Amino acid sequence: MSFTVFLGNLPTWVTADDIQSWLSSETLVADSIKVIRNPETQESKGFAFIETPNEEEMRAIIRRFDRAPLEDRLLRANPAQPPKGKGAGPHGGVARPGDRARRGGKKNRRGRTGPPTPQSAFAEELAKAL
Description:
Helix content is 23%, strand content 22%. By secondary structure, it is of the alpha+beta class. The chain has a domain at 3-79: RRM (RNA recognition motif) domain (Alpha-Beta Plaits, 2-Layer Sandwich), CATH 3.30.70. β4 and β5 form a beta hairpin. The N and C termini lie far apart (47 Å).
């Protein structure tokens, strides 16, 4: 079983070494620390994941860092949620009214994806027949 802490609202200058030193100064233990970065710019996205050896350590890190002040912000710490699979939207891959258009949709004149264009009456009848 995995015990991972989500640590968010970090300034972009924070590194895994910074987080490790904060944990060490509080005698808290982490198996690994991963600061999430933009793959193109390598700048921090402002959050990290801290893997802990057990649930007790995870809860201690959350108690210490959730709403802790750093510069002009309050950090957020909570148990990490399991990653969602690619392509699974907020409703488990089921489109609902009001959802954004899918990436594979038709492009408008400016090259942007928008809502699908209405089908012709013939295409609608053909779809019903099939």
